[in-house]
Description:
Layout: H1 2-33, H2 43-50, H3 57-73, H4 78-94, H5 101-120, H6 123-146, H7 149-152, H8 155-162, H9 170-176, H10 179-195, H11 203-224, H12 227-247
Helix pairs in contact: 1-3, 1-5, 1-6, 1-12, 3-4, 4-5, 5-6, 5-12, 6-10, 6-12, 8-10, 11-12
Amino acid sequence: MGILLEADCWNATRVLLGVAIFFQSLEELQLERGPQSALLVSESEAGAFFGFPMPSLRFLCWARFGALALILLRPESWPIWALLLGFSWLRSLRFLGSLNGGSDALTHVSLMGVVMALSLGSPKSGLYWIGVQVILSYFLSGLRKAKGREWWNGQALKAFLGQSPVRVSKGVRVLLNNSQALWMGSIAVLLFELAFPLAALSRSISLIFLACGGAFHFAVFLCFGLNRFFWVWLAGYPAVYFIASSFSR
């Protein structure tokens, strides 16, 4: 049962990570062709900053599509996953850091975990690496939020919802004018993120946190149009569940 669980979680993690990178690349390809492309750091600016020619965003998008196609043919080949990591790393250099901070960081550390696990022949090590990174991402985010008064009084949540680039629902617009609901929502986010390490204690607790996390990221997608966060964190959930299963044996 333990080996079957490990294989299932390992396969699910890699499939969902591939889906996340596919959507990231597709989004960036559309961004490169859209009116917002003028806001991006140019290839010449990035090249001048690092001192070597920088590949175009379009090339890096198609390069990742190609690497993903090769992974479909040879999913156990760590050099191909390393190639995908390399293209993702170059893409971050192209933006002088990242396009979407947290999601880009988790994408990179997850790819590192896959490359490490495949090169060592140890899926368990990759699952532990990715799972711990996901748990820390929530907990450290909660700690940063807890340091600011605006998260304790609901003003930060109001600012985030008010800056949504997509048309928000009527319910969200009502929430923006309800200080008590904003406060309750902010406290809920803080408590969820700070308590997320408890997800590693057992399978049942893990499932509760992962269900809440999935709903949270889906709500962020609906309000902000950010599917990057939904898919890449979802890719790490099987690893969190695997860790919880290891502790609850």
